[in-house]
Amino acid sequence: MTSIDTYEQAEAYLFGRINFERTTAGQGDFKLDRMRELLRLLGDPHERIPVVHVAGTKGKGSTAAMTASILRAAGYRVGLYTSPHIARFEERMTVDGALPTAAQIVDLTRRVREATQRLDAHPDLGSPTFFEVVTAMGWLHFEDQRCDLVVLEVGLGGRLDSTNVCRPAACVITSISRDHTALLGTTLGSIAREKAGIIKPGVPVVCGAQTDEPLAAIRETCRINGASLFLLDQDVRARIGEWIIADDATAAATPLIHRRIDVETPWRRHLELPVVLAGRHQARNAALAVSVSDVLNAHGWNVPADAVAAGLLEVDWPLRIEVVCRQPIVVLDAAHNWASAGALLATLNEEFAGKPRTLIFAATRDKDVVGLLRRLLPRFERTILTQYVSNPRVVPVEQLREAALTLGVPHVLTADSPAAAWHLARTLCGKDELICGTGSFFLAAELRGLLRRGQA
């Protein structure tokens, strides 16, 4: 068997595992017993580190990042586990904001490979997937780095997700909307029940769901588990301030605050908290992060009020309505369902009103592509359809064009790659216009990479 001595060899081994971020999976492909056995072979590192476990249809990554930043500001050593990654897979497992080194990745991969070799031939459990292996590496890394606490984002769903073997100190469910319906169900109630699968007996839950059907499912799961439930807009009140128009001259030297919020939880009242992520929906996510921080503070963790404000000010979370250029304005966003596309459009209307807009769009096969196009196309003066190159689940550009035609939008442009789409957009757009790349995390990541490498 090939040895693992370099980062490149570790990466080749990991991406050689079956990867449901790149292929279609059925619910039978997700087995918590396999994850538990993999971690048992590694000494059960997940049993020794408390967790804030975060699920939801949208907003879970942003909420996790804000929560981790608050806890760091409170003086804790905090691991943050999220997915997917933008450029390098080790972005999924940071400690106090720092990525593992190449040497650490090699060591972690070697250790996990020894355990996976024993499972690969197991007739009942089967071979661990890419996500399971990387999650196990994350746990080893967090233990090696002596984390006080880990903020753990669910990969998909909740009940059967590989992260759902943790021991949470608190749980968060951000919002519920339709996504991954083939795996999670077609109703908001069925989707909520899958997300609520992270709820554990006696563990407090903070929730941002807003409609009756998912709330009923979450309440019932909390009742069965004897878990306290704190609902945004009911037990937690947030007053969201107006959008702040920043001076570009100062924005380069200081965090760009998009708005301020007041949050009142059952324990404390926080005034004029900064929100550095764009969009009114991020203010709600910030309120959830503040609430779970107060829950932890009420249960023995020391999270001072000034750490809440300081942590929110230091959040760095790319591809969530991220402004990467100013002339023209370039916004990259990972929106890939109806609800997240709506949040994006609302933010563009509020923060960039009056700017002529060009859309760069690509999508993944298991998404509601027609629904996304129906929502987005009428709100842009110009559309460029493309296909990213980093993932085989991409919808070919010709299929996107056919979908646009079915919606009665014949005048769309096409490009065979994100690079070509970007160059076309720059050719057509003036410096006072807006370019938005969205429809898929993978598209937004590729466009961001082009801009950061100077290839755009």
Question: How would you describe this structure to a colleague?
Answer:
This protein has helices at 7-15, 32-41, 60-73, 102-120, 130-144, 181-184, 188-195, 212-225, 248-251, 280-298, 305-313, 338-351, 369-376, 397-406, 418-428, 441-452, and strands at 51-55, 78-81, 93-95, 149-153, 168-173, 205-207, 229-231, 237-240, 259-264, 269-275, 322-326, 329-332, 357-361, 382-385, 413-414, 434-438. The protein is of the alpha/beta class. The chain folds into two domains: 7-313, UDP-N-acetylmuramoyl-L-alanine:D-glutamate ligase (3-Layer(aba) Sandwich), CATH 3.40.1190; 322-452, Alpha-Beta Complex (Protein-Tyrosine Phosphatase, Chain A), CATH 3.90.190. The strands form three sheets. A seven-stranded mixed β-sheet has the order 3-2-4-1-5-6-7, with helices on both faces. Strands 11-12-16-13-14-15 form a six-stranded mixed β-sheet. A hairpin with a 2-residue loop joins strand 11 (322-326) and strand 12 (329-332). The longest helix is centred in the first third of the chain and has 19 residues, at 102-120. It is globular.
Percentage of helical residues?
Answer: 25-40%
Count helical runs.
16
The count of β-strands is 16
Largest sheet: 7 strands, mixed
Order of strands, widest sheet: 3-2-4-1-5-6-7
Shape: globular
Give the C-level CATH assignment of the largest domain: Alpha Beta
Q: What is the overall pLDDT average?
A: 91
The fold-level CATH name of the largest domain is UDP-N-acetylmuramoyl-L-alanine:D-glutamate ligase
Distance between the termini: 41 Å
Cα-atom radius of gyration: 22 Å
Unreliable runs: 247-253
What's the CATH superfamily of the largest domain, by name? Answer: Mur-like, catalytic domain
What number of structural domains do the residues give? Answer: 2
Structural class: alpha/beta
Beta-strand level of the residues, as a percent range?
15-25%
